Amino acid sequence: MDDALRPVGRTLLRDRAYESLREAIVRGDLAPGALLKDADLADRLGLSRAPVRDALARLTVEGLVETKPQSYTRVTRPVTRIVRDAASVVRVMHELAARTAVPLLGPEAIRAMREANERFAAAVRASDVEAALAADDELHQVLVGASGNHAAAATIDRYTPLIRRVERRLFGDSGSCGSAELHARLIDACAAGDAEEAVRITSEIWAALEQLADDATEVAEVTGIPAPAEA
């Protein structure tokens, strides 16, 4: 954990602090329930407190951090409803991106998707969760980028970390994080210019992640962190 947060450069300090902290939370280097002190985080990142406070405020809005005034700031635990809601939103945005992008894809885009899926399959076989999720992101980013829908891209970027936290924790137990075969079918649909089939397969891929929400509570329970009080 000591090496998880490395000093960042002096440009775009709020964004760099945000990205570093978000990555540490999603990877589990800052575990659910971990107390977050801006002075400590600022020291570890080589920053002043101001950009760290801004980053923590942004992460609070996004559901990765929770704060009780005059009491604590800590990493949230996965909550079934929140993870399921995030997965549903991400699924719909990827469906929209696929529907828009497929008619626009050229040979280079298809090749990039196939190469990403090869890396994904190899990473799954090696039980390398970080490489698998990176390759998965690369594959789907081809469609998101080709769609040109910046609102969809921003929504995906905001809510995917809530899902990735659970994926990383369950990867070792499940033995995979998605299906290279489903990816291959998606790529074939894209290569054939069949937007509706690509959307259907995209929905199937991301709907499976919604099932991870059912495991989110179990993941939280093993951390020993009490559930938040009901409003």
Q: Which key terms come to mind for this protein?
A:
two-stranded antiparallel sheet; transcription; WH_DNA-bd_sf; GntR_C; GntR family transcriptional regulator
Mean pLDDT: 85
Helix content: 55-70%
**Largest sheet features:** 2 strands, antiparallel
Q: What is the gyration radius calculated from CA atoms?
A: 19 Å
Content of β-strand: under 5%
Runs in which pLDDT lies below 50 for 5 or more consecutive residues are: 219-231
Walk across the major sheet and give the strand order.
1-2
Quaternary state, please? single chain
The helix tally amounts to: 10
Give the overall shape. elongated
Helix and strand element order? HHHEEHHHHHHH
Number of strands: 2
Helix and strand composition category: mainly alpha
Separation of the first and last Cα atoms? 33 Å
Keywords: DNA-binding, Transcription, Transcription regulation
InterPro entries: GntR_C (IPR011711), TF_FadR/GntR_C (IPR008920), Tscrpt_reg_HTH_GntR (IPR000524), WH-like_DNA-bd_sf (IPR036388), WH_DNA-bd_sf (IPR036390)
Organism: Streptomyces hydrogenans
Protein name: GntR family transcriptional regulator
